[in-house]
Amino acid sequence: MVHEAALRIRVGGRAVSKAQLTHILDVSEADHITVHVIPFDLDEFADVTAAMVYAGGTVPRLDTVVRDGPHGSLFIESEAQLAVYRTLFRRVEEASLDPERSRDLIYRLAKEL
User: Can you give the residue ranges of every domain in the chain?
Assistant: First the structure.
């Protein structure tokens, strides 16, 4: 899942940004990769501003959340805290664009460049 803001930020100029978006489109076609975009107009998550990486697998108690902040990364592994982030992750996933609409948005952004 990626916020639309991250897709619109130009790093390295127009050509590099377009290549990055094209790469996301290319890898999103793989069977084991799903891309969901959280669009700007999704009001429910306007206050969720910090990056979160949720690394989960077949054994939920081994899951880890990584939050980046001004003083470094924070690794969250306790079951109580993970439950909060699992809920947040599910809410974001349910509200985000589905993979097809996400690819459509990324394609439009790439064309704008």
Answer: 1-42+97-113, 47-95
**Which 3 state secondary structure label does DSSP give 111?**
helix
pLDDT at position 24 over 90: yes
Q: How far apart are CA 74 and CA 10, in angstroms?
A: 27
Q: What are phi and psi of 53, to 5 degrees?
A: -115, 120
Q: pLDDT tens for residues 71-91?
A: 888 899 999 999 988 888 888
d(CA 98, CA 113): 23
| C-alpha closest to that of 24 among 112, 113, 102, 93 | 102
Nearest Cα neighbor of 75 from 56, 102, 53, 49 is 53
Of 33, 32, 89, nearest in space to 56 by CA? 89
- Bridge partners, 68 (sequence order): 73
Query: What does the pLDDT read at residue 44?
Result: 67
